[in-house]
Amino acid sequence: MWKELVDHLTVDMLGLSGRVNDAVNFFIYDTLKILFLLVVIIFVVSYLRTHFNTEYVRAHLQGKSELYGNVLAAFFGIITPFCSCSAIPLFLGFIQARIPLGVTFSFLISSPMNNEVAIALLFTLFGWKITVIYIGFGLLVAIIGGFVIGKMKLEKYILLDVKPMEGELEEVEVKLTQKQRVKEAWEYTYDIFKKIWLYVLLGVGVGALIHGYVPADFIAKYAGGDNWYGVPLAVILGIPMYSNAAGVMPLVEVLTDKGMLLGTALSFMMAITALSLPEAMILKKILHVRLIGIFFGTVGIGIICIGYLFNYILQ
Amino acid sequence: MKIEILGTGCAKCITLEKIVRDLVSQLDGDYEVVKVDDIMEIMAYNILSMPGLVIDGKLISTGKVLSVDEIRQHIKEAGQ
């Protein structure tokens, strides 16, 4: 239905044709579709999330055995929102509750990777299959990455002296009425929408230009085919892009359309969300650079493996 | 009445501080608004997400920017 409406607008009303029509049509259609679905999905996710909060997660992770704790922490990462500005209290708060370092890292890897904007965009642009693959392998990286970091005994690299709290945390239940949940979810959705709509527009705009004007062989040559360096390059490029995930993902869709390999695209998107430069800068206040380096290295290697694996399977 | 905003300088923390200061300037009475940005002091309140709002030593909320009305309500309750 939307497609016909947009076609009517660009072809019949504006009288466009050929490449210009391709680009304009794509831009309008994609923007409408993406923005609409984004609002719906983010609202649903934030509504579900009003049932949990970080305090709840922490109480549940306390005293769990290591590997089980890693798995649980990674899954909890999906249901809690993440803001890099809270990385420090979150990290220290977990250590305070005697949650092992590795389990804390599993959460710290999974939470930003499975953020609502990334999930909503993946679903909108690539469909549910890729979204499930992204979340599934993202969890795997979080579980294994956290477990490996835990085994390395890196507690000495926490720069502050955190005093473990006594006793057990009480299980806190979030008590809200239905109306409060809807209100909170809506405010959250509106807040995010305000922040990302422009990026989405820009991303789709540049994507539309590529869609209409850049030939497929050009992209396939650099991001597809047999380039061994495609995946690691994508991961490195992804690191400084965290805050722009909303703008980059529509671009990635066009690039895969034009021949970028899916494994490379997957690695790129995971690097954008899981390896964030601003978060590293914030964590530097409380963690030794070496620990941050090991954290980025472990996650980076995991993401690169996933990229190669997918490119290999799908070829 | 002492109102503390716990936060290390994130966008939400700055917004909350501004809302509280604006509100307090309109209210009658003696209010002291303090921004706490020392991480160890913040951790003493046992919070996991910022910003935190503390009124007279009691933790009111974490991780969100309250509306003016909500804050007014909390101040009123704390004053009783």
Structural features, described:
The complex is a heterodimer of chains A (315) and B (80). Chain A contains 15 helices and no strands. Chain A has helices at 2-13, 18-49, 54-61, 66-79, 87-96, 101-113, 116-126, 128-151, 178-213, 216-223, 230-238, 245-257, 262-274, 277-283, 289-314. Chain A has one domain. Chain B has one domain (2-79): 3-Layer(aba) Sandwich (Glutaredoxin), CATH 3.40.30. Chain B is 41% helix and 24% strand. Chain B has 3 helices and 4 strands, in the order E-H-E-H-E-E-H. Chain B is globular. The chains are: A mainly alpha (315), B alpha+beta (80). The A-B interface holds A 53-55, 58, 83, 85-86, 88-90, 92-93, 96, 160, 162, 165, 285-286 and B 7-13, 39-40, 42-43, 46-50, 62-63.
Provide a brief overview of the structure.
The complex is a heterodimer of chains A (315) and B (80). Chain A has 315 residues and is mainly α.
Low-confidence stretches of chain B: none
- Per DSSP, what share of the residues of chain B sits in E-state strands of 2 or more residues? 15-25%
Distance between the termini of chain A: 34 Å
CATH level-1 class of chain B: Alpha Beta
Structural class of chain B: alpha+beta
Secondary-structure element string of chain B: EHEHEEH
Spans where pLDDT lies below 50 across 5 or more residues of chain A: none
Number of helices of chain B: 3
Estimate nothing, just give the exact number of structural domains of chain B.
Answer: 1
Number of strands of chain A: 0
SSE-based structural type of chain A: mainly alpha
Number of helices of chain A: 15
Strand content of chain A: under 5%
Key terms:
heterodimer, A: 315 residues, mainly alpha, 15 helices, 75% helix, B: 80 residues, alpha+beta, Glutaredoxin, four-stranded mixed beta sheet, 4 strands
Set down the secondary structure blueprint.
The complex is a heterodimer of chains A (315) and B (80).
Chain A (H helix, E strand, L loop, with lengths): L1 H12 L4 H32 L4 H8 L4 H14 L7 H10 L4 H13 L2 H11 L1 H24 L26 H36 L2 H8 L6 H9 L6 H13 L4 H13 L2 H7 L5 H26 L1
Chain B lengths: L1 E5 L4 H16 L5 E5 L2 H5 L8 E4 L2 E5 L5 H12 L1
Parallel strand pairs in B: 1-2
Antiparallel strand pairs in B: 1-3, 3-4
